[in-house]
Amino acid sequence: MSEFIKPEQIIVDDFVLKQIPGTPKFAKEIYDIFTTDSATFKHWFDGDMWKSVDEVERYYYDKSQNNDPRWKYAMYGIFRNNELLGEIGLSGIDTKNQTGEIGYWLKKSARGQGIVDKIMPTIEELGFEKFNLRKINIWCDNDNIASYRNAEKNGYKLEGIQRERKLWSDGSVHSTAMFGKLKSEYKKTL
After folding, report:
1. Where are the domains of the chain?
2. Which among 87, 109, 92, 97 has a CA at the least distance from the CA of 40?
3. β-pair type (135-141, 99-106)
4. CATH class belonging to 10-136
5. Can you say how many angstroms the Cα of residue 42 is from the centroid of all Cα atoms in its chain?
6. CA 24, chain centre distance (Å)
7. Three-point CA angle 59, 24, 17, nearest 5°
8. Model's pTM, two decimal places?
9. Along the chain (190 residues), what's the average pLDDT of each consecutive run of 10 residues?
10. In this structure, are residues 87 and 104 in contact, taking their beta carbons and an 8 Å threshold?
């Protein structure tokens, strides 16, 4: 049986990683982040991810309250000086096969500062040490150059391109790059 792992607060440099509350304030903030920068987020999510503030609030509230029987995951809001910058964590944790996926998003003003690079080793440590994963994957839209470079920069190896993997609501078809890092390739740097 899989479960949601309620994240404990983690400090990385001047960042605080903690659960994003399922409140109207954060729901509005996340909705605004995604709708004002939809051109960039199209690389991460099909353009219709959030249709309303209420939908965002329900998603984060449900995530903080309930276990999802299909997934084991640990996602963290990225905060600096109490400002929400994005989200990062592990999802799709398969305890039988000891695999999981790193996923993240950053708001526009937080990109290009090396934030993911600073936090990635902590998330890898969580996966490889706490959850005893033997492999962590990063999936990204093949056209998402920033995430593609980030995976390579952090030692993930390109394992393949799934051609035309996603059909988005606008009718466009997108290929997905899959990167992986094995526990044997992981070096504890903390």
Report:
1. 10-136
2. 109
3. parallel
4. alpha beta
5. 15
6. 21
7. 65
8. 0.84
9. 56 90 86 82 63 80 56 84 94 89 93 93 92 94 87 95 84 90 78
10. yes
